[in-house]
Amino acid sequence: MTGTQFPIIQAPMGWIARARLASAVSNAGGLG
Q: Which residues lie closer than 8 Å to 25 by C-beta, 6 or more apart?
């Protein structure tokens, strides 16, 4: 659906991870 090889959906972690984790996942090719 998204064109990813391994579509994995993470649980919401905004209260603990913040922008640093989100940017690391995005830079590694992750979605969400």
A: 10, 32
6 backbone dihedrals φ, ψ, rounded to 5°: -125, 85
Counts for the chain of helices (H) and strands (E), in that order: 1, 0
Question: Is the overall model pTM greater than 0.70, yes or no?
Answer: no
Cα separation of 14 and 29, whole Å?
A: 19
pLDDT in tens, the chain (32 residues): 567 777 666 667 777 878 888 888 888 887 75
